[in-house]
Design a protein that fits this description.
Number of helices: 5
Order of helices and strands: EHHEEHHH
Number of strands: 3
Structural class: mainly alpha
Shape: elongated
Strand content: 5-15%
CATH architecture: Orthogonal Bundle
């Protein structure tokens, strides 16, 4: 899957990339994470947030509601689409796989 500039779309993005994409500061993204339970970015072993495409869709919806429509956070939390149980399960599985990948990379570094 590719977008306009023929660059492949990544599956995961760092907070700085998402911040630029949505034109909001990283602190806003971290703040929204606390108020919107649908938003659960993964974290690598350093604690850096890693956003999935689903997370970015939720963030776009939050930005639209709060910035474009002027809806207060307390009201927007009720309007943001809820994740289905299947999506939550996939997200948790992706988190576990990312952790396992990092563990395996650490083992590989120790062997080299």
């Amino acid at each position: 899957m590719e977008h306009e500039e023929n660059k492949p779309i990544k599956k995961y993005y760092k907070i700085g990339e998402v911040s630029k994409m949505l034109e909001v500061p990283p602190s806003t993204l971290r703040f929204w994470e606390k108020d919107f339970r649908q938003l659960k970015p993964m974290k690598n072993k350093k604690g850096d947030r890693i956003y999935s495409l689903k997370d970015i869709e939720v963030l776009k919806e939050i930005k639209y509601l709060t910035h474009d429509k002027g809806i207060k956070i307390s009201k927007a939390t009720k309007k943001v689409k809820r994740n289905s149980p299947v999506e939550d399960h996939k997200h948790e599985l992706a988190k576990k796989l990312l952790s396992l990948r990092e563990l395996l990379l650490n083992f590989k570094e120790q062997l080299d």
